[in-house]
Amino acid sequence: MALINEHFLKLQKNYLFADIAKKVNAYKAMHPKANVISLGIGDVTQPLCPAVIDAMHKAVDDMAHKETFHGYGPEQGYIWLREAIVKNDFLPRGVHLDPDEIFVNDGAKSDTGNIGELVRWDNSMAVTDPIYPVYIDSNVMIGRAGVFADGKWSNVTYMPCTDKNKFVPQIPDHRVDMIYLCYPNNPTGMVLPKEELRKWVNYAIHNDSIIFYDAAYEAYIQDPDIPHSIYEIRGARKVAIEFHSYSKTAGFTGVRCGYTVVPKELTATTVDGQRLPLNQYWLRRQSTKFNGTSYISQRGAEAIYTPEGKKQVAETIQYYMKNASIMREALTDLGFEVYGGTDAPYLWVKTPGDTPSWQFFEQLLYGAQVVCTPGVGFGPSGEGFVRLTSFGDRDDCIEAMARIKEWLKK
Ligand SMILES: *Cc1c(COP(=O)(O)O)cnc(C)c1O
């Protein structure tokens, strides 16, 4: 008899997007002619840029000929891609990494979920609240999160991010071993200035903790003073692992490619106090459980770093950021308190008069035929907020704002 890993039984059912779909479908069944606009989607909508398409077509042709065919690649990723990453994503920011510190992955979700295997199950952990659910659920699966009671996990330290602290998480007043940070943030769309990030790095150095830094939305940062990588902070390579993804940067959600940085200076200790570098253990883990990202995806990713690729990717990001600014301006004019949307594709909107997230979701759906994501779905501190994304079409964004304006007049 095989016994199930009981930790899976503790997982909360992830009803958020299913519940949204159910409510939207119910509305559509009652109003078959209504044209519902979704500002709730967390997926990109614009196609891959021409530079990427050309590179991927060429890669497919490579696969068609014996001389240029590629079978299994290196588990850590092709060296040409890792060198392009080091040279383009880090060197211009004064960060010197070795290609051996880069691990190409099939998107950041797998690695943000798997990385917890590197450290013992009984380490303590902290997350910002609201949060991308992967950080908690992956820890629940290996028993690290404890038990769920009153909306929270017993072994998880929650750092609330609300309008009351301007969405800047407070450093815990006690030691934690593992800290998950995501900036620019999903869902709040907020960023962390250098001074704030420095506090976290210093905390981690002082407490011998590890920071898991999710930089999936780094390419959306517009403010030149906001750090794109935690390694821009001195000392961070001793304490931080960083995750990148081409999903939101270049529309790779369906292609699948990203990378994880595990610096050679980063260590963890054995119970008897021996210090060991995690880079070699992550390589060991990947070589065992992962056989690399497809050659075609990696050639597509490499093309993002060509001059044309850079220009085209930036244009798409500007398209989404223009959507964000249109929505931000319209909603602010209508009297909403709006956060984010200046360095991230997400807007975090306070519901009027502290209306609960789900209630406001329904009001917006029935009043304006616009779909948002209830903030409480991302954690207890998301209550009283909704998330809007700028990944839709321009015309839909403009139409949605006009409808909200009409609805409020009624
Ligand atoms: C979308 C997203 C990712 C990227 O996921 P992929 O697996 O690379 O597609 C990572 N972190 C956050 C917070 C995200 O929202």
Model description:
By secondary structure, this protein is an alpha/beta fold. The radius of gyration is 22 Å and the shape is globular. The protein folds into 2 domains: 6-47 and 308-409, Aspartate Aminotransferase, domain 1 (Alpha-Beta Complex), CATH 3.90.1150; 52-306, Type I PLP-dependent aspartate aminotransferase-like (Major domain) (Aspartate Aminotransferase, domain 2, 3-Layer(aba) Sandwich). The strands form 5 sheets. It has a 7-stranded mixed beta sheet with strand order 2-10-9-8-7-3-6, with helices on both faces. The mean pLDDT is 96. The protein has helices at residues 7-10, 16-30, 50-63, 79-90, 108-114, 134-141, 194-207, 246-250, 278-289, 295-303, 307-333, 357-368, 394-409, and strands at 37-38, 102-105, 125-129, 148-149, 152-153, 156-160, 178-182, 210-214, 240-245, 258-261, 267-269, 275-277, 338-340, 346-350, 370-371, 373-374, 385-389. Helix 4 runs parallel beside helix 10. Strand 13 and strand 14 form a beta hairpin. It contains 13 helices and 17 strands. The N and C termini lie far apart (63 Å). The structure holds pyridoxal-5'-phosphate (PLP). Residues 107-109, 132, 182, 186, 214, 216, 245, 247-248, 253, 258 line the site of pyridoxal-5'-phosphate.
